Amino acid sequence: MNFSFSDDQLLVRDTARQLLADQCPPSLLRAHTDDITAARPLWEHLSDFVPLGIGPLVDLCVFMEELGRVAAPVPFFATACLYAPVLEAVGEHDLDAVLDGHASGTVALAGADGVWHPNAETRKTFVPDAASVDLVAAIAADGAVTLLASPPAQRIETIDTTRCLYDVETAVPGTSAGTISRAALDAVLARATVALAAEMVGTARRLLDMTIAYAKDRIQFDVPIGSFQAVQHKLADMSLDVERAWSAVYYAAMAIDAEDDDRDRAVHVAKAAAGEAAKRAAKDGIQIHGGVGFTMEHDLHLFLRRAFGAEALLGTTGWHHDRLADLLI
Questions:
Q1: pLDDT digits (tens, 9 = 90+) for 37-87
Q2: CB of 125 within 8 A of CB of 95?
Q3: pLDDT single digits (tens) 146-193
Q4: pTM
Q5: Inter-residue long-range contacts of 31-39, CB under 8 Å, 24+ positions, other chains counted
């Protein structure tokens, strides 16, 4: 069986890579730190790709990997991976405006415990990009979905400045969009988890590439530090983790697309593997960079922040390991 990307998937990857190379340099990430509106021009380009969010998951993962590689500070994950699939599940007519790139949104679900499951709490936590989107889809304990325009939101201070998270008060007037079943919501979250894992693989690969380049250029004792065996071992371990995570992510995406019986387990493996790869790439990357890696002037910290931020979203590595244990024991 041929598991290579199709011509269309390669086109998506290459188009995204070229667009993001031109429109999302590290300087944009720095500008976004001070002003979240700085990335609006980039979002105008990327909103054309929102339909990927309700198409084959493998296609979406190809695109998300490229977004992770540049740590794009746009509400694509919130809109394409969360909001659009929820609207599709409840049959909301406003979905057309989202797919056309004319509207954006996010989902408010997690309660005070931070776990993404239905609950009766009206103050939702860890809502991605709530202040940057047009509407927030608040999901109640019974699955009722209410669309809120500019609800009260308080930004949560996190390590990642490229994806802003908010506490959102949902006990405000809104428009009922219908009810999403628990099975449909679980399916949305499974897809979003794998898409986020694909993004993390892209970020981990960017950290790996930056670290390899630095190891080739940094001279110590008249030789590149990449010639030292200890550094080589770290780079090799980083590379193995990234490739392992890449395989786990696309296996999970194919399992979901095929509605395979192994898809629930595969989702947890993908997020856990991506989390391990991202954390190793961040920790060993900054160690190999040495002192310069800790400076704000160096670009490494921009991707290190995205790696740790994404690892904690939709379940940490440890949380997904626990869910795997529940499935296996």
A1: 999 999 999 999 999 999 999 999 999 999 999 999 999 999 999 999 999
A2: no
A3: 999 999 999 999 999 999 999 999 999 999 999 999 999 999 999 999
A4: 0.95
A5: 32/73, 32/161, 32/162, 33/161, 36/73, 36/131, 36/132, 36/164, 38/73, 39/72, 39/73, 39/74
Q: For residue 12, how many other CB atoms are within 10 A of its CB?
A: 19
- For residue 311, give both structure tokens: 């690892």
Token pair belonging to 218: 């940094």
CB 116 within 8 A of CB 189: yes
DSSP-derived letter for residue 157 is: P
Question: What is the Cα–Cα distance from 301 to 282, expressed in whole angstroms?
Answer: 9
- Whole-angstrom Cα distance, residue 102 to residue 85? 16
Gap between the Cα atoms of 270 and 253, Å rounded: 9
Residues 6+ apart with CB under 8 A from 137: 82, 83, 86, 87, 105, 106, 107, 108, 145, 146, 147, 148, 177
For residue 101, give the H/E element and its range. none
Backbone angles phi, psi at 135, to 5 degrees: -140, 150
Burial class (CB in 10 A: 0-12, 13-18, 19+), 204: buried
Quick one: CATH architecture of 195-328? Up-down Bundle (1.20)
Give Cα separations from 45 to 48, 54, 236, 260 (angstroms). Answer: 6, 18, 36, 34
| Cα dist from 121 to 83, 167, 249, 298, 321, whole Å | 19, 12, 32, 41, 27
Token pair of 92, please?
A: 């909301």
Query: HSE-up of 210 (CA within 13 Å, CB side)?
Result: 27
Mean pLDDT of 7-20: 94
